[in-house]
Amino acid sequence: MAAENVLATQVTIGMLASGFLQFLKTQKWLPFINQNSGKINHAILLITSAAGAVGVNFAWNASAHSLTITGLTFWGIAAALWIWAKQWSVQFLVHRGVFGPVAVNGVAPHPLAVPAAAPTPEVK
Rounded to an integer, what distance in angstroms lies between the CA atom of residue 46 and that of residue 110? Predict the structure, then answer.
């Protein structure tokens, strides 16, 4: 039962993060994130998969003016990297399966470019 919950959670987080990336690709106010911005798109998937997988905890104690950070042991970091790799793989596969490729090769037109008008035929 626990394995099914973990898989369902990873797929759900992958779907949310992939949907977020797809949403960003369609926004006019972010012209540098589009179908052709492969490096940025993969960076967004890496960041969102880390946010969904890495568990570094912190606690602020205002009266003692101290910040306690836990989960940074060698084995804690190794486990976090393993979980991050699994989560990125799930997000990548979910994105490809639901939305298509993360990026399309080719040169995208400049986001502020105005399409040229069709040439008028010459009258003879």
Answer: 26
